[in-house]
Write a structure and sequence with these properties.
CATH architecture of one domain: Sandwich
Distance between the termini: 64 Å
CATH class of one domain: Mainly Beta
Structural class: alpha/beta
Strand order of the largest sheet: 11-12-15-18-21-22-23-24
Number of helices: 24
CATH topology of one domain: Immunoglobulin-like
CATH superfamily of one domain: Immunoglobulins
Shape: globular
Strand content: 15-25%
């Protein structure tokens, strides 16, 4: 090792830590990872790599890590398979068979002892190694057979040969596959409606779709249309401040909910507090609400401020009516108070720290004349453990409770929506989108500094859509520190998001295998892939899915190797198939029969043009107006390609007998997307074997502009656009009744 060049040492350490030496992009172009990129990514993993000596030291530390730690931090067993063994590493001077005795205690998640075992002496030595003049051995220790599903904390106490050590690791006993309902396994095919919750208009909301609007949609889609599922944008907690903090895919926290969706009028204190009633009756306050309601786009600032004003008053009444005091402990005196108390106890330390972050951020922001991020806070507040932080918590406990109160209200209202899906007989119910990451300077960034790589961003390599590559501005999870932590954060993320419905869509599911890292300050083209322990992440995903009885859909668009899709399919993760992209190698549209059964099919997504916008080229003209084409030739080439694509769609519909009567084969003679043509495309998807088909509300009502235009922030009204029709009119719209009838013919619920 000592004779190797520095470049070789970088490559060796990169190989060990999962940094790809090279990769092929979607066009088949070969990219080789540079030493500059490799060094920067290793540094982002908190490894010391500035010179040759540091590289050698890190390589030695890496190669000896389990020998000095005692065991690997995580092991996975699959239910029904032979349990096998785990390896203990440690010092032992005696030669031959091990003279050590290993006592292992298996603790279940509730802290109870599941079982205890003692192995040795006489264990066979599998491997030996000399480290700094001491002899270390590796022995294989058998796992007990037939452990139930779950997570176990394993404590191994080793004695003998003058040695007494303790080692701990996490054991994950997981099912082979994610949860798949019996009906889907038997070939039943379902359909549903997809929407962006914030986009819902109604005659009674405060300018943004809320959980009460969602309830109305559930009642309509489940009971009247016969839909099995309602697809939703991520409901993660946002700062709700334009322009940088409104994307559902860049939340402040993926662990908790966006309190903007609370229907204030359904909060009990709203009707018992005279101050609230006076505020709601105030003409100027009502004018603000009416203006936000009538606004073409979601006015996040107004909606946030009006809701917060009333919720502050509600909270004051809540404390007075339900508790003896809030410092330092809650002393509930009513059933409502006890319900809240049980909620914060159930949510535990994560909610407490989340609320602490927001109270701290609020106070520090109010005392500063400029915007601050947590990395700029006074040093005692930057980490979660300090005496100053404890003192702040004691001093500001009532304010911290306020943010817990908001999460309680949001959770209660969303769970009511879940209950309604069950009451109307929806087979899946709510289908949530789960974002890839969160904003680095948000709550999750502060709470999980130990497992995030802040000196890197994640994104996508160059492709035809983004020739320079994409930087999503999200800090990736460090696979090394994540594994050392026993995947605590990942487990909590899945558990919190799977509890609100019957399905979840994992954005950029390839991140379970590999993620494109971009060193901070470098262009996306200088990034490369970093690999994760997909066997362990998939085991956790399967376990949490089965426990929650929730279907898992993996968004597998873009540069996806075949082996990734094969692994996802084997694990029971549904593929995500978008009609626009489902083409044969020669460019024509795949016939319905070529879609996989274990998939969810949809016409378009939030990052792509709506059906009407696609057909009319609204996205092309929008990009042109914003100067997003490098040249007029590029713009014209996209128009030519769009004409060819539309001709292909018409040909595909015709081949299935779904081309509406009177519609010609020539797309130039079909200038707009008609209701009949929209129905034909959805029937095309409905004929596929795909287990689930979703229809976007925007496509049915003919919305022309897309939800989000990638590559823009404030040049386009991303994540702001409301539906043209209010909920009260949507539920009476005959286009949905007609489409539902057509879909039910191809996809009966039973």
């Amino acid at each position: 090792m000592y004779e190797r060049s520095e470049s070789d040492l970088l490559r060796m350490l990169g190989d060990r830590t999962g940094i790809a030496a090279d990769y092929y992009d979607i066009a088949g172009t070969h990219h080789v990872t540079t030493d500059e990129t490799r060094r920067a990514i290793l540094a982002a993993m908190n490894l010391r790599v500035t010179n040759r000596e540091e590289l050698i030291a890190e390589l030695e530390t890496w190669d000896h890590r389990w020998w000095l730690r005692g065991c690997e931090p995580v092991h996975v067993l699959r239910l029904g398979r032979d349990a096998g063994t785990w390896s203990w590493y440690g010092p032992c001077e005696s030669s031959g068979d091990s003279v050590l005795q290993i006592h292992t205690s298996f603790y279940a998640e509730n802290g109870d002892t599941q079982c205890e075992r003692t192995e040795g002496p006489g264990l066979r030595v599998e491997e030996t190694r000399m480290i700094e003049g001491r002899r270390f051995i590796r022995v294989a220790v058998p796992f007990p057979q037939d452990l139930p599903l779950g997570y176990y904390s394993i404590n191994a106490h080793v004695k003998g040969d003058g040695t007494s050590t303790e080692s701990m690791f996490r054991l994950i006993v997981a099912p082979e596959r994610c949860y798949i309902p019996d009906e889907l396994q038997q070939g039943v095919r379902w359909w549903g409606v997809a929407l962006q919750l914030y986009s819902l208009r109604s005659h009674r909301n405060w300018g943004v779709g809320d959980f009460r609007d969602l309830g109305a949609v559930i009642e309509w889609a489940g009971k009247r249309l016969g839909a099995a599922v309602i697809g939703l944008n991520p409901l993660h907690a946002l700062k709700n401040a334009k322009p940088y903090h409104i994307s559902p895919y860049s939340p402040t926290s993926r662990l908790f909910l966006n309190d903007l969706y609370i229907d204030v009028t359904q909060v009990s204190e709203c009707w018992t507090n005279p101050d609230v009633q006076n505020r709601l009756a105030d003409p100027s306050f009502r004018t603000r609400i009416e203006a936000a309601r009538r606004c073409e786009f979601v006015d996040y600032d107004t909606v946030r401020s009006t809701k917060r004003e009333v919720l502050e008053l509600c909270y004051r009444t809540f404390l007075q009516d339900n508790f003896e005091g809030v410092e330092p402990e809650l002393n509930p005196k009513t059933e409502r108070g006890r319900t809240f108390h049980r909620f914060i106890e159930r949510e535990g330390a994560s909610l407490a720290r989340y609320a602490l972050f927001h109270a701290l951020e609020e106070e520090l922001q109010s005392s500063s004349s400029t915007s601050t991020i947590w990395e700029d806070w006074p040093e005692p507040y930057r980490t979660r453990r300090s005496e100053a932080l404890k003192e702040f918590q004691r001093r500001r406990m009532p304010r911290i409770r306020f943010f817990q109160y908001l999460q309680w209200l949001a959770t209660e209202q969303l769970l009511e929506a879940v209950k309604k899906t069950q009451e109307v007989g929806m087979s899946i119910g709510l289908y949530h989108d789960f974002a890839l990451g969160s904003e680095r300077y948000g709550a999750d960034g502060w709470l999980n500094q130990d497992v995030l790589a802040f000196k890197a961003d994640c994104g996508a390599p160059p492709d035809a859509f983004a020739p320079e590559g994409q930087n999503w501005g999200i800090s990736p999870l460090d696979p090394l520190r994540l594994r050392t932590s026993g995947y605590r954060y990942f487990i909590e993320l899945l558990r919190n998001n799977l509890r609100y419905g019957g399905a979840i869509r994992i954005d950029h599911v390839m991140a379970l295998f590999r993620l494109f890292w971009i060193p901070r300050g470098l262009p996306p083209a200088m990034g490369t892939y970093v690999h994760y322990r997909d066997d362990e992440l998939l085991a956790i995903l399967a376990l949490e899915s089965v426990r929650a009885k929730a279907v898992v859909i993996g968004e597998d668009l873009g540069t996806v190797p075949d082996w990734v899709r094969d692994r996802l399919e084997t694990t029971g993760v549904f593929s995500y198939r978008v009609f626009y992209f489902e083409r044969e190698h020669w460019g024509g549209w795949k016939p319905p029969a070529h879609y996989p059964a274990q998939s969810l099919a949809v016409v378009t997504t939030h990052d792509l043009p709506t059906l009407s916008g696609y057909w009319e080229g609204v996205d092309i003209e929008t990009r042109s107006a914003l100067g997003l084409f490098p040249s007029e030739e590029a713009r014209n080439a996209m128009w030519v390609e769009r004409h060819r694509e539309k001709a292909g769609i018409l040909a595909a519909l015709k081949s299935e007998g779904l081309l509406p009567a009177g519609v010609p084969d020539d797309p130039s003679q079909v200038p707009t997307m008609t209701t009949e043509l929209m129905e034909g495309i959805h029937q095309y998807l409905a004929r596929t074997p795909a287990s689930i088909v979703l229809t976007n509300i925007e496509d049915v009502i003919g919305t022309r502009y897309q939800t989000n235009l990638p590559g823009t922030v404030d040049q386009h009204p991303n994540w702001c656009r409301k539906l043209d029709l209010p909920v009260e009119d949507l539920v009476q719209d005959s286009r949905f009744e007609r489409l539902a009838t057509l879909l039910r013919l191809s996809r009966p619920l039973v």
